[in-house]
Write a structure and sequence with these properties.
174 residues, Bacterial Protein-export protein SecB, 4 strands, 30% helix, 33% strand, SecB, protein transport
């Protein structure tokens, strides 16, 4: 049987309206802000290698309000991938991939986690594909970055910020 009232079930399972609007997350646009690929040892770096190079991947997420809007946020995912053997760099790919998101009806305490966990999670597959394509186009096997746990990154960032605040509080004269 279908629900024809147009009301979504609430936490109690009935169709009564709670008076609160449902949170909505919309992607307004996605874009490449910066893309760089370097292979300083080419064409020598493209020769067949006996072993896989060491690969380091850095990830950073930033979020800012768009032009004073209370609902629109610019979220940027930065990926920095370096491959090398010893002190020799085979390639260095950098991507700053962004999206403008509209967050409506989110409680204040949920807004920051949505911006730093859910938004980059939505951007990641597109950024991953760009890095894969640019490394392949650079003459290397495509670099397929493993999925990233943005919740864990967010928790680490919060813990680091708390530790920094504690250090600042203990270092201030009483």
């Amino acid at each position: 049987m279908s629900d024809t009232t147009g009301q979504a079930p609430n936490a109690n399972g009935n169709g009564a309206q709670t008076g609160e609007a449902q949170p909505q997350l919309n992607i307004l646009t996605q874009y490449v802000r910066d893309l760089s690929f370097e292979s300083p040892q080419a064409p020598g770096a493209l020769r067949n290698r006996q072993q896989a190079p060491g690969i380091n991947i850095g990830v950073n997420v930033t979020a800012n309000q768009v032009d004073g809007s209370q609902t629109d946020f610019d979220v940027r995912l930065k990926l920095d991938a370096k491959a090398g053997e010893g002190d020799q760099t085979l390639f260095h790919a950098e991507l700053e991939y962004g999206g403008v998101f509209r967050l409506q009806n989110f409680k204040e305490e949920h807004r920051v986690p949505v911006l730093f966990i859910e938004c980059p999670r939505l951007l990641f597959p597109f950024a991953r594909q760009i890095i894969s394509d640019v490394t392949r186009n650079g003459g290397f096997p495509p670099l397929m970055i493993d999925p990233i746990d943005f919740a864990q990154l967010f928790q680490q960032r919060v813990a680091e910020e708390r530790a920094r605040q504690q250090v600042q509080q203990t270092s201030q004269p009483s």
